[in-house]
Amino acid sequence: NAGVTQTPKFQVLKTGQSMTLQCAQDMNHNSMYWYRQDPGMGLRLIYYSASEGTTDKGEVPNGYNVSRLNKREFSLRLESAAPSQTSVYFCASSEVGRTNYGYTFGSGTRLTVV
Amino acid sequence: KQEVTQIPAALSVPEGENLVLNCSFTDSAIYNLQWFRQDPGKGLTSLLLIQSSQREQTSGRLNASLDKSSGRSTLYIAASQPGDSATYLCAVLSSGSRLTFGEGTQLTVNP
Predict the structure, then answer these.
(1) Who among B43, B93, B103 is closest to A90 (CB)?
(2) Closest CA to B74 of B24, B17, B5
(3) Which residues of chain B does A110 touch, with a Cβ-Cβ cutoff of 8 Å?
(4) How many angstroms separate the CA atoms of A47 and A50, rounded?
(5) A94 CB within 8 Å of a chain B CB
(6) B94: pLDDT confidence band, cut at 50, 70 and 90?
(7) Furthest-apart CA pair in chain B: how many Å?
(8) Per-residue b/e over B16-33, b at no fewer than 16 CB within 10 Å?
């Protein structure tokens, strides 16, 4: 089925460890996004990529890096994980400039940093 | 900065009741508004998208309205069912192609 695929679904890290969250979409969308969801905070934008080759900071970028590998793939890296990064991470994609298109979200990655 | 507020934060109703979820936003310069459903431990499923030029959208028992000038949207659910139990999120697309979310309304429909 067409959509946004995220891996892994669950991950436990120790403080200071690094990891990369993977995201791929097969809808030929130009734009991709990484959000985190925390209780009482809603979904907050970490980074986004308006098109292949570009990335920009969102609302909460500190402690994260991203790579837009190609049009399909957008990865999120935690270089040195901290307990404050315990969250559910969602990747999304959309078609910029097409306001009749909504966002499509992946199923999420539940990350716990101990 | 766009801010989105959803009221109520939680709602519990008996099966069969019609209900309304509310969403308000501070900056009326939006491109569209999207309603999502999120089941516990799951991702977001898009329910309805209303473009800024539209007043409402319908899908089955769901009807979403948009009053851009007053910064408000409502999601109407007719004849609610236990399977409608979930968190409903409202999100607006504003300048810079940024999607801003409300914190959601947690709906419980009791059999």
Answers:
(1) B43
(2) B24
(3) 41
(4) 10
(5) yes
(6) confident
(7) 43
(8) eeebebebbbeeeebbbb
| A100, two tokens | 């009749």
Q: Tokens 């799951």 belong to which residue?
A: B42
pLDDT in tens, chain A (114 residues): 669 999 999 999 999 999 999 999 999 999 999 999 998 888 999 999 988 889 999 999 999 999 998 999 999 999 999 999 999 999 999 886 666 678 899 999 999 999
Contact A37, A90 (CB under 8 A): yes
Chain A, chain B: beta-carbon pairs less than 8 Å apart: 53
B34: enclosing H helix or E strand: strand B32-38
Across the interface, whether the CB atoms of B34 and A102 are under 8 A apart is answered: yes
Cβ-defined contact of A105 to B98 (cutoff 8 Å)? no
